[in-house]
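Section handout 9: paired folding examples.
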Amino acid sequence: MVAHQTIVTLFTYGGGMRGLIPAHFMSRIEDATGYRMAEMVDVFCGPSTGAILNSALTLRHAGDPNRPRYKARHLVRFYEREGLKIFPPDRFREFRGFIHDFNNRTMKLNQLNALFRHGHYDPRNLARALRALYGRARIEDSLRSLIVPTYNIEGEQIHAASEENESGDAPVRTRNNTVINQGGQALWLKNIIFPGAVGKHRRSARVSLYDAVMASCAAPTYFPCHHFKARYNDASPRTFSCIDGSIFDNPCISYLGAVRPHLPPGTRHVMIVLGTGYTHRAITREEWNRYGALGVVDPVNDLPLINILFHASESALMDAFADEAKEDLFVFNKSLVPDGSSGMPNAEIDDASAGNLHKLEHFAAALLEENRKSFDRLCHILATHKEGKDSEALEPGWPRFKNPFTFWPER
């Protein structure tokens, strides 16, 4: 009997500086198994800060293109080193954004627009950090399959594609011409290269990792949209203006829209979901009714409607997704909503202070401690997958990875 192929996918959430949580978690996986993430995982996907991590972990080593350039601990150092440059302390950023919005609604003075910079952080700081991290690498050069989600807001740049030209000429697949060239469009920039992948000829646009990740990281109110050019096959370059992929992407949607279409029949699919902390909270009906039309989008109220929209599709799909994945779904995440303890990290994505970095590391440690059994089993699956064992041999016996938890300091 021939064993079915096993494909391992890693989804990493967005969350700015909270990307330190999955970075630390992956560093512990690498310590436990003795292998790098790109040696054990076949497909990397996820938006925003997750795209930063995934794109770096799938970079090829300059001296040996069959090996990954970075370990997860290198990405921990990246956040620690670059955090305050990307998100410098700025007590007046929200005030500048307020003045800009007020000017937009009333005076419309160009001088104020230039002065207050719309309340964004300076994207040049993020740009410098990503250029240093990725160099001239392009998405099609990734060592493993890589999927970077972003959302194109300029509808005129989307060309309707017919069923006859689903060969990678267009950024989206269509059925019966249901996609028209108006409005925005979710966009996955991807390089699918795992063996046996269905439709692997539908390759991503030719685009630099820098542009793909900058686009996926353009979180509304934090960074402006990212404008870049991409080329599909031999067609002329096309321009895109994109914002953060987190506005539509989550593990359920990535699996259904970007991963499952490429899985050959009979594939065993293992999916790892590494979170950056859940930030949504319950709202009482009294609170909701009191907010009113503007209160549901007011930052003072923690943007309740926007938080709901971010999490609604995942909550609608997760049960069906988990039923399909069964024991091959590993989710490592927990709430960041304040519980009264002093050690909880800041839920805001732009807190790069030394104190918060320390709290994020401890949050990752607690997440691991609370899921030791799943962590052990996952490390066993990853190490065995790296060594090319039959999928039926993944479960029995104690994990063969080295020194489980001995790397973790006693508390």
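Moving on to protein 2 of 2.
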Amino acid sequence: MKLRSLLFVPGDRPERFAKAAASGADAIILDLEDSVALEKKPEARAAIAAWLGGERPVPCFVRVNPLDGGQTRADLEAIMPARPDGIMLPKAEGAASVRALIAMIEGDAPPILPIASETAAAVFQLSTYGEVGADLAGLTWGAEDLPAAIGATAARNPDGSYTAPYEIVRALTLFGAHAAGVPAIETVYPNIADTEGLAAYVARGRRDGYTGMMAIHPAQVAVINAGFSPSEAEIAHAREIVAAFAANPGAGALKLGGKMIDQPHLNQARALLARVA
């Protein structure tokens, strides 16, 4: 499943489902958690189940409510008969939370995408996701719930960059995802109107090793897709690296275009070409 962009859409706004699916996003996330008021959750469950029962233009994840909130079982009872393509689990606290969700599903579980940084305890469980890597669609993080959970006044500096504690959480999520062998999905960029800032944020994420990102508005999707897609020049260079090593079996290092390349460059080239394929 290609996951460059995952677009959130509130579960109680079914009139927006088709627009979200037509946005160009690789997947949509039908939300039952934060964007839906408590009294509207039954209505949202019914709307999502009806949408999932029809023809799906793109893969559809459902963000259920947190395991400790008393709503998750009702979420699953409503949506699982329609077989969503994935489940997003908020406030996940490591492999134990993933196992608990799978046990609650009581059957074949779809791939799970944990939001892995929304409580203080969750940060210390980021290394455990390798235990359940085969059950995951990826791993993502959030910079909104954690400050509230620990009494911080903000997660960002005045210029929009993350403060030091949240840079650490972002990095740990990145490494936790790669250690588990699953895609690392960057968190949302909240300023919908700031296209340039979004492009820079996406470029930073891809530079650091993230392979996709969540979106909160259809206008963000094209920028995210472009930023997480290798350019033709990058693809051509990766093919040159692979071809160079294929032509020189047993070589540990080679000279290509006036620069030395070695095994890490070959690994990066193969990974890039695998994503394109």
